[in-house]
Design a protein that fits this description.
This protein is mostly beta strands. The chain has one domain: Beta Barrel (OB fold (Dihydrolipoamide Acetyltransferase, E2P)). It starts with a strand and ends in a 30-residue tail after the last strand.
Amino acid sequence: MSEFKVKGKIKAFLEVQSGVSQATQKEWKKQTFIVTNKDGYQGAEQLYPFEVFGVEKVDNLTKYNKVGQEVEVSFRIGCNEWKDKYYTSLNAWRIDKVAESETPEPYDVQVDTGVNLNQEVDGGLPF
């Protein structure tokens, strides 16, 4: 199964959905959260709606993550069929905080080649 990663900022947490499984009679929870970045065409904003499924995962999602936080989400693409319709989802299985790195100051690189390229040399070439 292929795994993918996306870096961006958490834009929103949607409402928690919950219910009881008909097959096992166990409670389930699911929550969608939106991550955004500038990876779209010509730097346009890109939105990714990720889902976490399971009571513990949903409880930990907002406990350890906040809106505006930089994250890297590892996810799988899933698809379910129901009544001849297909539903695709991005299933997040890992969310890592990304440290906001400082932009390094630009600097000039000086290289000593040992040759003055402005100097005329017999034969026309300095090497």
